[in-house]
Amino acid sequence: MAQKPYHGDGPDDWLRFVPVASAYALKACGVESASSWKRLAINTATSYVLSCGTTWALKHAIHERRPDGTDNRAFPSGHATVAFAGAAILDKEFRHVSPWISVGGYAVATGVAVDRLVRNRHEWHDVVAGAAIGVGGTWLGYWLGDKITGKSSRYQVGFDGNCVSLAVKL
């Protein structure tokens, strides 16, 4: 089968960050989110570490060739992972305000996934796997983050401009 040419970088390169940036922008503008700033930051970081770490590990373990032949890091789609993780964060934080905020986040993430297909960077199973990892990593990230920051947590996280510290109550 002949390889289709690479179509260059496109809007997917920056659109993948729109859902998570929207969550922070809405919170900064005073829209009531489900989390404090601390909880949002910890859960976002935990979600992205889990999601992107899983995607990175799979890309380096599976070695699936891209449809355009540029490299062998196609599976799963990192762009879809980042976009859908952000959409899941936006959903968890602002669904209570309006379900349309969630719809918008997932619509942008879907647009990123479709653009990856159109630009011949991925096959459909790459972007579906990336989307599932992004959403699943966010759900797990919120669960773990809440173990750290919840009211009955044995853990306390502090930020002081130079470092992040974790204290465990014994």
UniProtKB/TrEMBL annotation:
<feature type="domain" description="Phosphatidic acid phosphatase type 2/haloperoxidase">
    <location>
        <begin position="37"/>
        <end position="142"/>
    </location>
</feature>
<dbReference type="InterPro" id="IPR036938">
    <property type="entry name" value="PAP2/HPO_sf"/>
</dbReference>
<dbReference type="Pfam" id="PF01569">
    <property type="entry name" value="PAP2"/>
</dbReference>
<protein>
    <submittedName>
        <fullName>Phosphatase PAP2 family protein</fullName>
    </submittedName>
</protein>
<dbReference type="InterPro" id="IPR000326">
    <property type="entry name" value="PAP2/HPO"/>
</dbReference>
